[in-house]
Design goal:
280 residues, alpha+beta, 4-stranded mixed sheet, 20% helix, 28% strand, globular
Length: 280
């Protein structure tokens, strides 16, 4: 069978962040990409019955939930324990792949807290524990999601317009299970993330985000660092989660070339992540 790279290749032009919608089974197999260091991080995915974000004595682990470092995908064991390799220097981001019938906690802006950042050096020396709380959530086969593309406010008055028009209508209806913004959360204004998040929280549902070409750090030195400001607020720009019978895969397909230049396409590690998610 042709590889994902051969089948989908690399795009071009002014592509925005894309969301792949793939119906697959929950089961995933662990698979490691070559070249990862020996540093590891361990933790537990658990049933956070009281919603306090901390694993208490009466809260059991959740079996066979996917956890990823952005490349590898591994299933927690029967007691909810997982172990993942980490590579590189500085920080690494780990995330849980939310299974059906569960949800991660949200912060004050209704942003799902499905990820954790760890210092890779710390993980190498102390095997730091990183746990993921999940909360039971009913998810029928039929559900509704709100998808918002390119709100792209350039100034505070644009955020106010977003609040008075689109979000005001969503807040009145509250008919969705979750929402997602597909790129250009702002128009090159990371300082507007907080005001936008305050407005979007009024929709009253968990809200995911994916970056677009106007969510880049234009002064960045390379592609990976171009999304540092976005990921500091919203978490990884490549991730996955289940809802109902569907697996959603979010892939940042904006490749930063420096200055105002970018193309559309996926990195090798993103192809590896996608293949590892789909190994069932």
């Amino acid at each position: 069978m042709a590889s994902l790279r051969d089948r989908f290749g690399f795009g071009g032009g002014s592509s925005l962040g894309s969301l792949g919608l793939i119906g697959v089974a929950m089961m995933m197999l662990a698979a490691s990409a070559p070249g990862l260091s020996a540093a590891v991080v361990r933790g537990v995915v658990f049933d956070d019955r009281n919603g306090n974000g901390v694993r208490d004595a009466d809260e059991s682990g959740l079996a066979r939930v996917g956890v990823s470092n952005g490349v590898d995908v591994i299933l927690a064991d029967d007691a909810g324990h997982y172990e993942l390799p980490l590579s590189g220097a500085g920080e690494a981001t780990l995330f849980v792949i939310k299974p059906r019938g569960w949800r991660p906690p949200v912060n004050e802006w209704n942003l799902p807290q499905f990820y954790r950042r760890v210092k890779t050096a710390d993980a190498a020396t102390s095997l730091a524990a990183v746990d993921f709380p999940l909360i039971r959530s009913e998810e029928p086969d039929a559900f509704r999601a709100w998808v918002l593309t390119d709100p792209q406010p350039y100034a505070p008055q644009d955020v106010d317009y977003l609040a008075r028009t689109v979000v005001a209508r969503l807040a009145e209806r509250r008919e969705a299970d979750f929402g997602i913004t597909l790129g250009d959360v702002t128009n090159d204004r990371a300082d507007l993330y907080a005001p936008v998040n305050t407005v979007m929280a009024r929709a009253g549902v968990p809200w995911y985000n994916l970056n677009g070409n106007h969510d880049l750090n234009l002064g960045a030195s390379d592609d990976r660092s171009s999304v540092v400001s976005f990921e500091a607020v919203y978490g990884p720009s490549t991730y996955a989660f289940h809802h109902g019978r569907v697996l959603f895969v979010a892939l940042n397909n904006v490749r930063f070339l420096g200055g105002l230049r970018y193309i559309g396409g996926l990195r090798e590690d993103q192809f590896a992540f996608l293949e590892n998610v789909l190994r069932t």
